[in-house]
Amino acid sequence: MTAPQVELLNMTKRFGANLALNNVSLLIRSGTVHALLGENGAGKSTLVKCLVGFYHPENGHIQVNGREHRLNSPKDADALGIGMVYQHFTLVPSMTVAQNLVVSGARLPAYINWQSELKRLTEVTKKLPFHVPLDVRVSQLSAGEKQKAEIVKQLYLGRKLLILDEPTSVLTPAEADEVLGYVRSLTRAGELSAVLISHKFHEVRRYADDVTVLRRGASVRTGAVADLSDDALAEAMIGEPVSKMVQHAPKSPPKPNIVLSIKDLCVNGDNGLPAVKDLSLAVREGEIAGIAGVSGNGQLELVEAMMGQRDRNGTITVSGSSFNGTRKEIARLGVYGLPQEPLKNACIDRMSLAENLALRNFDRAPLCRGIAMNYGALAVQAERLVAQFRVKAPGLTASMNALSGGNVQRAVLARELTQDVRLLIASNPTFGLDFVACEETYRRIVEARNGGAAVLLISEDLDELLGLVDRVLVMSAGRIVHEVLADCADKRVIGKYMAGMKAA
Ligand SMILES: Nc1ncnc2c1ncn2[C@@H]1O[C@H](COP(=O)(O)OP(=O)(O)OP(=O)(O)O)[C@@H](O)[C@H]1O
Hints:
Layout: E1 6-15, E2 18-28, E3 33-38, H1 44-51, E4 59-64, E5 67-69, H2 74-79, E6 82-85, H3 97-102, H4 114-126, H5 143-156, E7 161-165, H6 173-188, E8 193-197, H7 201-207, E9 210-215, E10 218-224, H8 230-238, E11 258-268, E12 274-284, E13 288-292, H9 299-306, E14 313-318, E15 321-322, H10 327-333, E16 335-338, H11 342-345, H12 353-357, E17 368-369, E18 372-373, H13 375-388, H14 405-417, E19 423-427, H15 435-450, E20 454-459, H16 462-468, E21 471-476, E22 479-485, H17 491-498
Parallel strand pairs: 3-8, 3-9, 6-7, 7-8, 13-20, 13-21, 16-19, 19-20
Antiparallel strand pairs: 1-2, 1-4, 4-5, 9-10, 11-12, 11-14, 14-15, 17-18, 21-22
Helix pairs in contact: 14-15
The structure holds adenosine-5'-triphosphate (ATP).
């Protein structure tokens, strides 16, 4: 048996006055998958970053197979066979998968024998239940393939404790099953121990043996997954009994006026090849139109072209006016967005939370008087939005960098959804959110629709999409290949179109 037993004991970590971990202990039994659950900002990432030597706790220590170790840097974790697959990608886009894997080792020889390395790599990938193309540049891979390559990299590096931070958010349900099923089979064979951070209860139930719930930096519940119901886990996460899901306001039928109209849109991807091909669609007032599709089928390029961040051919109009995504047009036409990776695409990470909350209206009264900023009004607005959307942050003046992933998402939601929204473009808006925040996001999107906004929702989560939208459009290889009213939608048919097949 080579899978280690790893124990974290009494870990305490502060960021300034913020106690991110408060005396947390965690036992990862040899050959098991241990799930970590917790609301956004509960301390999950901080805990695992201590385990990979990235953060240094003020107190506490780590034992591997009963022996105490001090992790001063990620190199120490590497030497112990501990590795992590992050939410963001770490592979070099301009290199092939094989090149990335070979140069990822901590110690590189002066001379690389590519032939023998490639042989070794082929041996590793041959055993996998999924395909990872070794000779393709990472920039050409879909998000799902990149995520699989990240996992293969860790296995190739010989990790014995693998930490997976929300690994399935960019995978289709079938891919998620392949990847997590494989990790579980390695743990069951005694070759690996694993930590799985996830917000999805069904994933925890299916793939994890044990679970620990963190709340506000403390471990509040731990045990075998089989002994804990979903309600018990949810209650441990939020600290009170869970009331049933938020009831969405009843929907009113969409109005005939078209808000967003896209005609014959063509957009190239980063590789210079067409990513969106002659795409046309329309979204009406009071309607949520959902774009379903496996990531990497042109959704990103479509959104970027709509928001003026990418060259395009074809026409886009909002409420009858030509739309190029300029700041003036956005304000005049009421176009707001919840983009993917909000820290990168919707925030200025070094600026404060309060400043980021004002990015849409800093140049309008009451936030500015003439050319002078009114910092008092900026703070009042930030306080109101933080309370209303329950953003947890070290303070209003903390930089966006200091917020947990889910709280960045909440802050962007707060900023975008409290404007006069006439068109909302939401791209995987619940990526990384805990279940309470997901429900809140759904409620607010539905409220925007019921208030008369047109909503274009792009989501790789088919269940989420079918639960929210009025009409589904399936995007595959840059085109809309299928369209159906949500009430008549058949998940299997949509799945086939998503996979590029024609339904019978
Ligand atoms: N580099 C940092 N500087 C200051 N505070 C930080 C830093 N990183 C995390 N924090 C704070 O520590 C707390 C725990 O954050 P952490 O990222 O560990 O939460 P999480 O459970 O992983 O959340 P999520 O589900 O949103 O990813 C939060 O209050 C966060 O604001």
